[in-house]
Amino acid sequence: MEIYDNEILIDVDYLNIDSASFTQLKQVTKSDLEKIKDLIIAIVDEKGKMQNPVTGSGGMLIGKIEAIGDVLKDKIDLKVGDKIASLVSLSLTPLKIDKIIKIYPEIDRVEIKGKAILFESGIYAKLPKDIEDKLALAALDVAGAPAQVKNLVKEGNTVLILGATGKSGLMCSCMAKKMVGKTGKVIGQARNEKRAKFLEITEFCHEIIIADVLKPLNVLEETLKVNNGKEVDISINCLSIPNTEMSSILPVRDGGVVYFFSMATSFTKAALGAEGVGKDVTMIIGNGYTVNHAKIALDLLNESEILKKIFQEKYS
Ligand SMILES: NC(=O)c1ccc[n+]([C@@H]2O[C@H](COP(=O)([O-])OP(=O)(O)OC[C@H]3O[C@@H](n4cnc5c(N)ncnc54)[C@H](OP(=O)(O)O)[C@@H]3O)[C@@H](O)[C@H]2O)c1
User: In terms of residue numbers, what domain contains 26?
Assistant: First the structure.
């Protein structure tokens, strides 16, 4: 872990494993924490980074600056000891794990002793003083999603959010409700009654549907029921499981937009699926980066008491 003069060495505290990746790790190990530990160590030993070989995805980290290369020292607003969150994916961040201290399987978090290297081009956020570190880590992991919803969703739009009960889904729902204004509608999907009740309390969605995301017709039917028989303008996929492309495409009107934030999305299934059902929709890959995405995500947390409370209860 020696750095070049334009790199930053980070003493890592926590990894936030990407949700699609962690879901896959839980599936293959039947949620056995020791096996998950072994798998993470094996991946990082082999690849030199936490890139899940099945999902291809990474996650992000928080840690303290241990060293800054000479060339960078005067160019950046960081000093040794500062706490930062990396905003580039772990799938491309050199990482060495000395020890896994603890795994928090409910929130995809791994406490480690280890080091990482940030390249000169790597983006990062100094951890804000007004939000607790672990809370910020959770929000920053999915910061691209609410920032892109802010750009994408316009007043009066009808928006369907798949996986509205998850971390990015809640942030997207909260942002979408702001953007659609009085004339639009946000429809949130939950997988069962219990999760629907939880979503209802947030008041982020005008309508909530309970639907099986692996059954596209079920998602379409439930959406039509709450939208006067009409398809939606935009759907946003915030799910962490594969095979949900058609559930995102079917409920969208011709000329509408399907936004795939999920890392479990297959380009082939989306492209051929849309063609197969003759849907003329614009499909967008959820870029993890958007200008100002970190600020937009953290501002959203500060603006919405209920969102902050949910994040505090789950991720603190
Ligand atoms: N594009 C990017 O740059 C980027 C960056 C970060 C993350 N991501 C991706 O964004 C997606 C969401 O991440 P997240 O952190 O928001 O995940 P999360 O908090 O774990 O939420 C996952 C969502 O999927 C639902 N879900 C999980 N398993 C399910 C199942 N078997 N059946 C039905 N629903 C299921 C969850 O429902 P419950 O709430 O009921 O569990 C929840 O709504 C992931 O695919 C992640 O990889 C993309």
Answer: 8-127
